[in-house]
Amino acid sequence: MPKEPKKTKAGSYGAEQIMVLEGLDPVRKRPGMYIGSTGPDGLHHLIWEVVDNSFDEVMASHAKEITVALNPDGSITVKDDGRGIPVDIHKQFKVSALELVMTRLHAGGKFGAADSGYKVSGGLHGVGVSVVNALSEWLEVVVERDGGMYSQRYERGVAKTKVKQIGKSRNNGTTITFMPDTTVFTTLDFEMKRILEHLRQQCYLTKGVRLMVVDKRTPPDRAYGFYFEGGIVSYVSHLNHSKHAKHETVFYVEKAVDAASVEVALQYTEDYAESLYAFTNNIFNPEGGSHVMGFRAAITRVLNVYARNKGILKEKDDNLSGDDVREGLTVVISIKIPEPQFEGQTKAKLGNPEVRGYVETVVNEALATYLEEHPSDATAILGKCILAQRARAAARAARDTVLRKGALEGFTLPGKLADCSTRDTEVSEIYIVEGDSAGGSAKQGRDREFQAILPLRGKILNVERARLDKMLGNNEIKSLVIAFGTNIGEMFDISKLRYNRIIIMTDADVDGAHIRTLLLTLFYRYFPQLILEGHVFIAQPPLFRVAKGKDVRYAFSDAERDAIVAEFLKMKEDASKVKKSAAKDEAPEEEATETTASTDESGGEVTKVGGVSIQRYKGLGEMNPDQLWETTMNPANRVMKLVTIDDAQSADETFDILMGSDVAPRKKFIQTHAKQANLDV
What is the CA radius of gyration of the chain? Predict the structure, then answer.
């Protein structure tokens, strides 16, 4: 007989510590692995998972209409007119196919069954609706198919009823209603704007589908409908609605290659930035992939061949580069393939190598034909590209001059930069500060070991309206480029970044907000990788200094100021009562809370309320260096906002509206949001 294993000591790691999670238990144990987070992103992901199944039915040509409803009780209903989930008994597992799909991971009709009808699918990860079921307090599904109407209810992923027929129906489709679990999610607040933006994008990518979103949470009900006959052609027109197009006709091609479908739509505008959106099976690929590589190779080749053949480019002229042909280009690439291979769980980049050839072949043929058939459009496009080529050459010369001059002035660092002493880029940070006054306070208050200060004089150039050569003529932008060390344009190299954190620190007024917007425009258009990799922050200096005697607190909002003042006044009142009670006086008299206003030494506003001093900071220069360090620059106390790009399309549109050359969209934006503005001039 085998010897009995020795007992493990307390706290040791043995077989009894091994836990096997079955069914949907892994989802409830580690929800972040399946939906990313239990915050707002994860909450909305539940809708995407259910709606993706409906869009898969549309892409398989089995559905035409989808309805998403936000119900008064906080639940969500998604209905489609597809085939309906099968309800018959599965031979292997001896339960209804509906229950199998709803309660087991990796159960579904998208894993290669030849007769499943799903040639392509966005939900190929295989977790889908079962994860939604697991993370819902309750979920009800109604299926209409084969002349009947069937229903089943689940609670936290467990079937509470059998699949039963509840009536007859001449229709087909699936209706799923779910209530997110309050014990899993940190918030149950669905954002209508986020839902509409995501579903609108999906409708652009699936032409011909009718989608209705109904918000029933507060009466009256509000309904939003989407239907785009033009598909991604309509999408490109939408993206360019606030831009000036170089040609009226949107180039479009759709073609099947082997088992794949390739769709591309593009249009040039007078902008300087490229707007490219790539999708695989309706999944956005922010990092591109093989389909983007194929498109870029094709468009560069086709435009160069056309320009040579028509004599637009002479023998002595250099070929147009990839950067030249992409300036001002808006393009949507949509690929549908049976077996997509993504790099990473987030599906940010498509890896299928054969797709490059598919896209390159399709775009080569179709774009060459388009240019021949639309000579005026071709002339406008080539004119834009050649102008970009000349500007890029001028920018290259300007950049070389900037860097060469910077090197001669001292290791590429501008004179007004107060650099840090460490050379460890992992801990170093640079504060971009508005004005010399604030720069002086920041330089005195900083930790010289790891904090650098770069003051800006005035407002930098609006780069939304300028090419690189003009930008580099601006002294403030020159200083930024030299200080970062990454170079700019096609020479950008993030590995040479000299600071791990780039922190924008401006005054809490309209001018400060404008400077912050100009800087963010610069980063978004010319240093997007700094934002994507989490290097850009916005400092949050306090708005108020509230003091009662030696007790000093800082407030970052009006509400926080009011709470601190109320606390100080309550402490004063309590102290007064204790003092009078100890002196055996009669009931304490009510003290008048007197309010007076004055200015301090630096000219800042100071208000006194019942002995509590409130100083309002309008500029960083009003703060003493030690106050600036304590509140805004000390890593132990400071609050900073990390700049992210959650929705590149929305960010691109907003920058174009706020900073672009077209006045009408900006005027409309201001009129729409005027009542929400809280200006402190």
Answer: 31
Separation between Cα atoms, residue 411 and residue 581, nearest integer Å: 70
What does pTM read for this prediction? 0.70
What is the DSSP pairing of strand 148-155 with strand 329-336? unpaired
AA identity, residue 301: R
DSSP string over 180-219: E-TTT-S-----HHHHHHHHHHHHHHSTT-EEEEEE-SSS
Q: Is 215 a catalytic residue?
A: no
Q: Which of 254, 287, 365, 509 is catalytic?
A: 509
- Determine which one of 507, 622, 630, 652 is catalytic: 507
pLDDT at 241: 87
pLDDT in tens, 71-123: 999 999 999 999 999 998 888 888 898 998 898 876 655 544 445 555 565 54
The pLDDT value recorded for residue 271 is 87
Assigned superfamily of 32-226: Histidine kinase-like ATPase, C-terminal domain (3.30.565.10)
Is the alpha carbon torsion for 310, 312, 314, 320 positive or negative? negative
As a whole number of angstroms, the distance between CA 356 and CA 473 comes to: 39
Identity of the residue numbered 51: V
Asked if residue 435 lies in contact with residue 502, where contact means CB atoms within 8 angstroms, the answer is no
- Cα 197-198-203 angle, rounded to 5 deg: 95
Active site residue 562: no
pLDDT, residue 594, reads 56
Contacts of 345 (CB under 8 A, 6+ apart): none
Peptide bond into 375 cis (omega under 30): no
What is the fold of 409-541+642-676? Rossmann fold (3.40.50)
Report domain extents, the chain: 32-226, 232-385, 409-541+642-676
Task: Write down the catalytic residue from 323, 447, 511, 573.
Answer: 511
Return d(Cα 600, Cα 615) in angstroms, integer.
8
- Torsions phi, psi of 357, nearest 5? -65, -40
Asked if 264 and 363 touch (Cβ cutoff 8 Å), the reply is yes
**What residues are paired with 602 via a beta bridge?**
none
Asked if residue 639 lies in contact with residue 540, where contact means CB atoms within 8 angstroms, the answer is: yes
Distance in angstroms (rounded) separating the CA atoms of residues 503 and 537 = 5
434 noted as active-site residue? yes
Q: Which residues of the chain have pLDDT under 70?
A: 1-23, 106-127, 344-346, 399, 401-412, 577-605, 646-681
CA distance 128 to 252: 32
Q: Which of 81, 327, 419, 434 is catalytic?
A: 434
Task: Give the ranges where 310-432 is alpha helix by DSSP (H).
Answer: 322-326, 353-373, 375-408
143 close to 47: Cβ distance less than 8 angstroms: no
Asked about 73 being catalytic, the answer comes back as no
| pLDDT (0 to 100) of residue 472 | 79
Architecture of 232-385 per CATH?
A: 2-Layer Sandwich (3.30)
Q: What share of the chain is helix, strand, coil (3-state, %, to 5)?
A: 40, 20, 40
From first CA to last CA, the distance across the chain in angstroms is 87
C-alpha to C-alpha distance for 472 and 456, rounded to whole angstroms: 15
Bridge partners (DSSP) of residue 553 are: 546
Within 84-160, strands assigned E span 136-145, 148-155, 158-159
The 10s digit of each residue's pLDDT in 388-398 is 998 888 877 77
